[in-house]
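Holo model, 1-deoxynojirimycin. Inputs:
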Amino acid sequence: MGLHYGFHINRFLTETTGSILGMVGARQTIAIQKQYLKDSKHKIPLLFMTDVIHGYRTIFPSPLGLACSWSPELIEQTAAVAAKEASVSGVHLTFSPMADLVRDCRWGRVVESTGEDPYLNSLYASAFVRGYQGDDVSAPYKIASCVKHFAGYGAAESGKDYNTTDISEYQLRNFYFPAFKAAIDSGCKMVMPGFNALNGIPCTANPWLIQDILREEWKFTDPVITDCTATYELTAHGLCASNKEAAQAAINTGMDIEMVSTTFFEEGENLAAEGKVSMQTIDAAVERILRLKDELGLFENPYKDADPVAEEKIHLCKEHRALARESAAKSVVLLKNEHHVLPLHKNEKIALIGPYADNKNLLDIWKCQGKEEECVTLLEGLRDRIQVFYAEGCALEENPAISYEEVHTVDRDTSCDAACLNSYDAAVSDCDKIILALGEPASWSGEAGSRAHITLPKKQLELLKRLSASGKPVITVIFSGRPLELSEAAAASTALLQAWLPGTEGGNGIADVLTGTSLPEGRLTISFPRTVGQLPLYYNALPTGRPKKSDSITERFSSGYIDELNSPLYPFGYGLTYTTFQYSGIRLSDKVIKEGGTIEAAITLTNTGTFPGTETVQLYLRDLAGAYSRPVKMLKGFQKVFLSPGESRTVDFTISAEMLQYDIPGHGMTLEPGDFQLFIGVDSTTANLAEFTLVKTRES
Ligand code: NOJ
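Output:
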């Protein structure tokens, strides 16, 4: 049983519990372990597990922000730092990575995901696992990882958290599963099923998912833990009539540890006595848990790295802050930059305005041991580097604990107080440029943080429009856990930056990009909708029989809307730099690729602007005909290329026949001969295309 924190060591604990959740701190974990080992009969060390999601004390940008770095290496480094800080505080295992693919940004947990692409999600899931675990989880400063929420949790209907999911096996295998498989192939030590029902059966008690796929097909031999109270929830789902039935279903499906709820403890013995759960099943679960404790080295050293002196030295140390700053800068996505208003110049006078200008609310709800007071605000990041005038003005941050009435009156319908808006006039009249820091509070995303209106609070938009009418260039910086509807904000801004929830060093990282100390290189890993009505929205969609010839609303009887374009406001892969790049046409080494073979695709990339910059060159493929309809584009590779102004470079990709396979239910990974399109370009909308044919040399 996994017990949540907030307990005292007592007989109940020593006789029933094998792991502790959410309890951290070297002194506390050492004390509990010591007492437990003294009192318990079997002397099997406790496993301390908690949610270290994007940092422990030094908090990095939330995963969706980190993902926009397009840098698995960076994610691996941040996970290694998180593991180091957590391990000295007595943590043995983290409930990370979250490998859920997300297509609907109403879902609050989009902030914890790495986006909408199975290829990138897989690279990131592996990177997190490598960072936490290294090659050996027993090594100093390493912790075990638990991939979650298996599977399809991110496809919650209508974006409502915990909602049901209905996903075909074809979609599961080709979109939702790959990142989980990648984490497992990288050695991830635990799996947590989702809260959701998948195709009618909750994941916690879904034998096809846990036994057929996870255990049989993927050969996963480590423990599976339920999500928090998920066993209790089997009755609410309507799968089980009682907690006893729920325990039976969960244990027999293969849940080894129950999180927070206590049905295994309460009903396990009876179920075994009645033959409803076999001793073989219980032994197998126990063996998996013991093996994990052994692999962590807990039988030799039950405290592992827990050390109060090391905590002092390691937590939030200079190197960790430096990595947090670098990752905040790399996760910023420049969405608009008219008239080269950015980067800022040293001699310019800047008015800094808005609810996030000097706000330490830069961590999300998984801030772990991160502290708001240790965060660097945007004002603090900018202050010593340029002439910045902070106009505190009116408080615009809406209280997240709003009532339904407030959402629909105060937030959406009440105009901003005129006196409050006037208070900015003096600051604005004396400046060259305005930086306006807007967004949604961190608590508006995350678990159970779904929104039906993914807009900026109305007062903020009003302020933006008002400042924009002043004629001064407005650089809008958006702090949010999710993509918001930004059409109006983009139109009213000269420049627009998506800063996500940037973590402890957020203000410094964003200031680095604004001032050009760091060059913007972030790219979106999730599509930004024009309006919530377009959701779910993702670039790698299947084609329809009636695709639009162009992105317009007037073409009737083709797939789309009569009142909105199909295209996102900002597509997957999008992000500007301070320079411009030109791509030549694609050169292929061969027009034919044979089974088992490869071809080369090359382009020439030139920096045609006046700034140096890093371009993220993206490779997409499309399979034109097959047993299943295939996505209109699929990311299959990317390279980051740094070029000085005027510099050119050849960028090449190797296309292997293996990259052309896909998972056909009942057949496994399959290679289908035929024609393919290959795209190399700036983002998922690129039309820079070449074609080739796959031929099969032998029948499989
Ligand atoms: C519930 C969340 O769904 C899961 O992601 C988390 O790891 C557990 N609670 C434990 O905090």
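The longest strand covers residues 613-623. The CA atoms of residues 205 and 489 lie 45 Å apart.
Archived with the compound record.
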